[in-house]
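Subject: mismatched residue count in predicted assembly?

I count 645 residues in my input, but I want to confirm that the predicted structure covers every chain. Input:
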Amino acid sequence: MINITLPDQSIRQYEAGVTPLQVAGDISEGLARNVLAAKVNGKVVDAMRPITRDSELQLLTWSDTEGKATMWHSSAHLMAEAVEQLYPGVKFGIGPDIEQGFYYDIDFMDYEISSDDFPKIEKKMLELAREKQHYTRREVSKAEAVDYWKNKNDEYKLELINDLEDGEISFYESGTFTDLCRGPHLPNTGFIKAVKLTSLAGAYWRGDEKRKQLTRIYGITFPKKKELTEYLELLEEAKKRDHRKLGKELELFAFSQTVGAGLPLWLPKGAELRERLEQFLKKVQRKAGYKQVITPHIGNVNLYKTSGHYQKYGEDSFRPITTPQEGEEYFLKPMNCPHHCEIYKNSPHSYKDLPMRIAEFGTVYRYEQSGELHGLTRVRSFTQDDAHIFCTPDQVKDEFKGVMDIIMHIFKALDFKDFITQISLRDPEKPEKYIGDEENWQKAEQAIMEVAKEQNLNTIVEYGEAAFYGPKMDFMVRDALGRKWQLGTIQVDYNLPERFELEYIGSDNQKHRPVMIHRAPFGSMERFVAVLIEHCAGKFPLWLTPEQLIILPISEKYQKYAEKVLSFLENNDIRAQIDDRSEKTGRKIRDAELKRIPYMLIVGEKEEAEGTVSVRKQGEGDMGSLKLEAFAKNIQEEIDKMLEE
RNA sequence: GCCGAUGUAGCUCAGUUGGCCAGAGCAGCUGAUUUGUAAUCAGCUGGCCGGGGGUUCGAAUCCCUCCAUCGGCUCCA
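Triage response: the counts match. Full output below for your records.
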């Protein structure tokens, strides 16, 4: 007999070899019907896998992340089975579950395939699902595994097997499909009740663009039809928040084929909003001891040879600009740091001057491959809220902390709560990818880790994600569709000071190398505004929004009073307009609601007589009437509260 | 750059198997209306059907090519 401990700490006794599914059946029949997989001593396994010793058991259902993952992983197999039956002879790469569903990379050989074929595959999948095919696990020897896939002529699976050890190889069979797979899987395909193939894409084998491109089919499945419908509705909702759609609707920015792909045009309202963000940050930075600088948009090729960027990226940049007579080469600046290094070099520095913090809203130009452009989040011309801090090695930690404070302040003012903090360190296996010496790298990496720990931030550490000149800490947020984008960044750099031979005189009257910290709390104005739009669904915080309120006179009889209200508000630094069209009030309200103007002030006979305004809040409706002065005061207080430190 | 999809008025979309001067709603303009918490009415303007090339008596519809956009892959100083 063995003891099975359930999550509520209750203990049940069974014969050795009992399966999680049997335990579930003992608890309730309904539970047994919903068990997708099980966690035994912390490891996710098949619900049919026998338990042989005393164990802690957690039954996994659709409401568990691992339950969903198991469902989707099994769905990948189901799709592969359907595809193999419809397209005999295709070869399979990998087919994992992902955050939302699953995919399978398939070499379709000579078959032509497009998303038009999805309905056919989906139908086949549902057909096979209804057969309630069992997922059967089988341990195989390496020789047997190699044999099987050689027979099938599948070089991809053979390559995967090659990296595995004999004795740790297992097959999963379901229906006519056999896959090299660690598992776990559903008890049978019957759990899959709704199927949607979502997209088709090329994906390089093992992520290597030099290797063959396989066809990746993405899909998602559900245990109930209704859940699929809900998922699709949710997707539709998310699309409504898309910054590309809202940017157009709210007249914030635009693109023109004639100007060029990835070159955003900021429209008046967008420019105003961006300007306000910039002023906000400038003010914070002024308090934190930053000085603003301005540098040109191009730089001599020698600048980038000195910085090292030329050798690393010269070929992948916009082509150089040359002067007509002398043939000198200039590059559009892809970053601001080299220019700022030259500013540092403009005068000698004492340790007493440090840290020196110089900031610039610097517009940079980077050649991004055409397929990578994406709304405002990935563009070829963008403005970084850049600054560089030159300091002594002892000051690194404090400066790093100071930058973190700024970033946290900004996130608070804009109500960003769900962000991910990522620390990017070297790939220890590829030291040739980085410039700079070992000792400096270690120092930098350590400083970042320590500050993150002291700030009590929840961080993830990624090896191999560091910039080539130094380790960094990035702040990422998700867009409406769940894609991750990097916003703020702090990067320690021991390399550029070396390359530019930056110096300061220490208290010992000797020359020393300063440390450089690159930082951009927003990251870029373009990407930040994009993510901000999606986070607030176009309803910007009151302090930031281009039009804070609109005055709606009931008829032109009240135009004069409306103008009086307007000038009063303008005198109180409130951004307002009058809708003086000869439209009905209902129409004016509707238009203002759609433009997401936070407040509507309706003025008519009663308001004029009493010196009040009838207040309507966007999305919330009628708030009753208020004395004009009282309303203005309320607005001011609301804004102050958002910006307090 | 690669794989797949898409591209019709400022915006959202119709345009049947290639066939009469390419349609609608919204926006815009003109006029009427003077309006009380999410769409007042009428008229008008507006399109080289993404660009170029081809097939055809005839192309928005078919083919080629380029460009842009969308979803991925790779990339992201």
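The two ends of chain A are 62 Å apart (CA to CA). Marking this ticket as 'not a bug'.
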